[in-house]
Design a protein that fits this description.
CATH architecture: 2-Layer Sandwich
Strand content: 25-35%
Oligomer: single chain
Strand order of the largest sheet: 3-1-2-4-5
Bound molecules: nickel (II) ion
Helix content: 25-40%
Radius of gyration: 17 Å
CATH superfamily: 6-pyruvoyl tetrahydropterin synthase/QueD
Number of strands: 5
Number of helices: 4
Distance between the termini: 26 Å
Shape: elongated
Number of domains: 1
Amino acid sequence: MSRVSVFRREHFNAAHRLFNPAWDEQTNDQVFGKCNNPNYHGHNYELEVKLTGEIDPATGYVMDLKKLSDIIEENVLEKFDHKNLNLDVSYFVNLNPTAEHIAVVIYHILRKEIDVKLDLKIRLYETERNFVEYPA
Ligand code: NI
């Protein structure tokens, strides 16, 4: 049996502000810099969803990537795209919307939708040069 990884890349735009409400303004400014701008700022996020598993002998697929695309669209992009993550997306009401946290949230959203036989990994690019992966 052949284990293969398949990938789907998606894109969303979103605004956020990084801050820790337990800290004063000066500390937030020192730690988060421009990302602490009280009026928020935007990113063009690139999302890569990686699935690893056996090829289904009937279809020749690990998973139909059109179906994966629909799952991401419905469960992630509709919730995140063109949103203010802090204000509009319930997951981040009490969670600092760093790339790390966004990746973990997306992982848990998608994990519920994807066959347990498939391993799932999320890679999220906040900029071309800054990206995170979960699970590590
Ligand atoms: Ni930022």
